[in-house]
Every structure is written in structure tokens, then in C-alpha cells.
Amino acid sequence: MNRVEFIRNEEKKYHDFCYENYKLFEEGSWLYKPVKTVIDLLSMLEGKTNIKVLDLGSGVGRNSIPIAQDIKTKNGKVFCIDLLDSALGKLEQYSKEYGVEEIIETKKADIGKYVIPKNEFDFIVAVSTLEHVESEAVFENVIRQMALGTKSEGINCIIVNSEVEEIDIATNEKLDTMMEVNIKTEDMINTLSHIYEGWEVVKQLVKPLEYKIIRNERNILLKTNAITFVVKKK
Q: What is the pTM of this model?
């Protein structure tokens, strides 16, 4: 098993556990509520109809379901891409529960291999997912496709981890980071700025975060510089 396969296997175990043990929009995990930045951006779609949204690495619908609820009356559609069966199964279940199954369309795919149609989407969301493509070259290719797949005046919202460290809390040992793409913060911002040259930067923020996760029954401290990068196509 190569490094990428190993990381994906570990991430699958971690996410499968979360999706099985924590319910969407219930306190106790990161599934508790959608990302505020994503929801705040919905106001920028006001006045539009037939809205098409792409959620790359949608998981169980933490962001897709609130988006779908918002655009339900605007003849909108949210296309949700994820690699995990556990995520898509739960997403389909939750979309029925929240009355948006008509709005949400799921597709099982590796976002690094998924082909984004050109000039198709009003809003593309990629939250904590781009760092899980298999290489920096694929990372750049996906972002270029996101840019090309966006309609005029459309929005891209990227939240991505950089300079990630994982530390065993019990021993203080620094562990191999379970991220396929772990780039310096400055380099990642430079890449994003270059690809989105000519777009309007709506929000750019770097936030140092640390939180505890459980991986293989070990308590891990995960430290990261989380980049929020929101741009609007002119």
C-alpha cells in the first residue's frame, strides 16, 4: 500500500466512524452546523434562479443540505461529490429527512478525477477536501477546473488546511500527517491567487486552529493553518 492509499484508508476509517456515531446538526462533532462562511455567501446568489451548486467532498451534507434548503424555491440543484459510500448513503438519508431530496444529486467520485463541466456552476464549495487529492499537481488541476466550471459572477469558496501537524497527545510524539497534500500556507495562497488572477477576492483569511481527533483509538492533536479563500468571477 502506498502513502496515498494508506492515508485514504485512515481517513475512511475516521470519517466512517464519525458518520456512524455523530448525527448531522447535533452537538458533539464538526457535523453540528454548516460552515458560516458558506452560508453567508448564499446572500450573493439573491435574485438568481436555476442556481447550480457543486459541493466537492460533500460528506453527509453539512453544507449541501442548508444550501439546498436555501435555493429550493429558486429551482436550484446541488451536485454533491464524495468518494465514501458511508457519506453518500447518509447524505441521501438526510436529504429525505430535511425535505431536499429533489434538490440534491449525489455522485460517487474522487474529486481529483471528477471532470467539472465548463461554465456550469453559480457556486462551487470545497471545504476541507482539496488537501485530500493525491498530489500538488492534482490539487492545482482541480482548482483550475473549479475556475473554468464557474459561470460569470459565480463564486468559489475554498477552505483548505495547510502546514498541518499531528501530535500524539499522550506521548507528545509528532506523527506522520494524514494529509495527501500538505503545503506551506504562503505557497498555497500564492497558488490560489495565481489561478484566480482577475477574480474579485471576497474573503481571504488564515486561521491557526488546533483540535483533538481520535485516530485508531489514539488521541491526536491536529494543528493547522486553515485558509479561507472566497472569490467571485467577473
A: 0.91
